Amino acid sequence: MDAIKENFQKIVELARKDGAKVEMLLSGGENLSIGYQKNKLESFEATQSQMAGLRVILGANQGYAYTENLSDESLLRTYREALSNAKTVQKGESLEVPLVKPQTVQAMNDLFNPENVAMDKKMEVARLLEEISLNVDKRVQAVPYSGFSETVSFKRILNSEGLDQEFKQNYYSGYAYALAKEGESSKMDGEGFFVRSFQDIKTQEVAEEGVRKALSRLGAQKLPTGNYAVVIDRSQFPMVLQMIYSYFSAKQVHEGKSLFKGKLGQKIASEKFQLVDDPFELRGSAVRPFDDEGASSQKTVLFEKGVLKNFLTNLEYAKKMELPHTAHARRSPASQLEIAPTNLLVAKGTKSLQELLASHAKVVHLTEFSGGLHAGFKETTGDFSMPAEGFLYENGKCVGPVDQFVMSGNVLDLLRDIEDLGNEYNKPGSSMICPDVLVKSLSFAGA
């Protein structure tokens, strides 16, 4: 028996005497980050981390505590703190919170394949991301942000029902964002990569694509105010999914915070819109064989031909709301248990990007939400007013880049007004896997 399990068994015995159940979530790993500026090594950081979070259950009440020290004494102290918190926090409910029982999970052997890559090769990737970007075009003034990362992570869950699950993964990621200038116009854009094998890194391609994107935005004009058909780029449609992200949570539904409450089984989006939560999709960054209670992962259909098919649940809310258990518990060792998606995958359509852009007399190709979700989204109503940038197309031909406009609407209306979808996905590395999406009409405030 390993030391962690041995120490946890002591806690389980204490919990039994206290009339409690207990769960321990451990996570951590190693990360290497390398960055160059002006052809000189600017940052080199190697870190290790580990943390244990204990959840103690007393009937309907739960208490949490965490520690970065995994010694016997520290874990026992953390258990007592979580127990005290469970006694303090009284929900006033009678339904006992359950724990996941031991179960078989799907093997995901492709997640963890450590490689023996020489350090100079990793440093070379970081150096070339900046160097190539600087040399692609004389209009590139600088590469303010670039870097290479290697990540190894693990997660382990044990509970007093006898469950003990663990998985590891490793991957490489990097990015290069170039600042381009021509006359009075200056724009920054970039590209990144996410791969599970070092040999799949395409440094030249990443740097050149980042520069191309920055150059394409130079000389942008203001977009005339009006209603336009819009193609939300595959790299940007994840922002729309972020708007509806929390609405799928059964906890949010139960608390009256989800705009999807009361709409299960109803057609509330375009028939073209199909959405699946897929924790096994290796292109996504949220892959996992089990959730943060240790329950075996599964695919869950969320939208089928525009019909809302399921809410996401953990064990507690599946029982409380008499819904299917979808294994979507989410927490870190330092946080309380919530419910959240893994990899959200929007089904592709059959049209090329060019076909989508030629589908109306005037189309805005939205290629950048420039302010982020916090810039103008109201979760309680679904209304958004988001600063953005992109390109204006007339009769399928690009008129030029446009900026300094705000796109407004309601996310439920947007889902209903989806006309078509593209036949290519965004690049790996996001937990939201999307094609280009054509929306019939949205309001744009510009010049």
Descriptive key words:
alpha+beta; 9 helices; five-stranded mixed barrel; 447 residues; six-stranded antiparallel beta sheet
What is the compact description of this entry?
With 447 residues, the chain is of the alpha+beta class. The protein has nine helices and 20 strands.
Through-space gap between termini: 69 Å
Sequence of strands across the biggest β-sheet: 3-2-1-4-5-6
pLDDT < 50 stretches: none
Number of helices: 9
The chain-level mean pLDDT equals 96
Binned, the helix content reads 10-25%
Please state the CA-atom Rg, rounded to the nearest Å: 24 Å
* Oligomeric status: single chain
Number of E-type strands: 20
State the secondary-structure class.
Answer: alpha+beta
Q: Give the ordered list of helices and strands.
A: HEEEHHEEEHEEHHEEEHEEEHEEEHEEE
Biggest sheet layout:
6 strands, antiparallel
Strand content: 35-45%
What's the overall geometry?
globular
Q: How are the SSEs ordered, and which strands pair?
A:
Blueprint: H1 3-17, E1 21-37, E2 40-58, E3 61-67, H2 72-88, H3 119-136, E4 140-159, E5 164-182, E6 185-195, H4 203-216, E7 221-222, E8 226-232, H5 237-244, H6 250-254, E9 275-277, E10 300-304, E11 307-308, H7 315-321, E12 329-330, E13 338-339, E14 344-346, H8 353-357, E15 362-369, E16 383-394, E17 397-410, H9 411-416, E18 418-421, E19 432-433, E20 437-445
Parallel strand pairs: 7-17, 8-15, 14-19
Antiparallel strand pairs: 1-2, 1-4, 2-3, 4-5, 5-6, 8-20, 9-10, 9-14, 10-11, 12-13, 15-16, 16-17, 17-20, 18-20
Helix pairs in contact: 1-2, 3-4
